[in-house]
Design brief:
This protein is of the alpha+beta class. Helix content is about 55%, strand content about 15%. It has a single domain, classed as Muramoyl-pentapeptide Carboxypeptidase, domain 2 (2-Layer Sandwich), CATH 3.30.1380. It has 6 helices and 4 strands. The model has no long low-confidence stretch (mean pLDDT about 95). It comes from Clostridium carboxidivorans P7.
């Protein structure tokens, strides 16, 4: 049974649909290639996807005359809406609900393992805009929150 509902906000549905498509593709890679090779292929694909997203966001930043290496620019040109992600009241960098994890968790341990590989995209995005990300807690690893600790590079 899917955690995806037609009554949800369209941006949330698309995030969940993307997460579900990602799960099926990643799971198939692991099934066909084995855990080690499949996981390496998934990580490589996520890196390439992250690099493509960064390239597009930096191009937009340049078009808009924004500093391409600033975290404020990342917020201004971010290509994925944050609709649907919930954060703690006192810390916007502490995520308490992730719609993508909501989908991955319905597939049990396998869903969470490949889902967590996707989360590495955040490192690529933040580092490309001048920030080092440390994530001591991640919902896709089974933690109750995703904690984003950011430091300027």
């Amino acid at each position: 049974m899917s955690n995806l509902k037609s009554s949800e906000n369209p941006e949330v549905r698309y995030a969940k649909l993307m997460a579900e498509l990602y799960y099926f593709m990643a799971h198939e890679m692991v099934e066909r290639m084995g855990n080690e090779n499949g996981s390496e292929a998934i990580s490589s694909a996520i890196n390439k996807f992250g690099e493509a997203r960064v390239k597009a966001m930096k191009a937009e930043a340049k078009e808009r005359g924004l500093d391409e290496d600033d975290i404020k620019t990342y917020a201004a040109v971010r290509d994925m809406p944050s609709t649907g992600w919930k954060h703690s009241d006192n810390n916007p960098l502490e995520i308490t609900y992730c719609p993508m994890e909501d989908i991955w968790s319905q597939y049990g341990k396998a869903g969470m393992e490949v889902g967590h590989l996707y989360c590495d995209i955040d490192n690529i995005l933040f580092e490309s805009f001048g920030m080092k990300l440390e994530r001591p807690y991640c919902i896709a690893k089974g933690d109750k929150v995703c904690k984003f600790n950011l430091k300027k590079l």
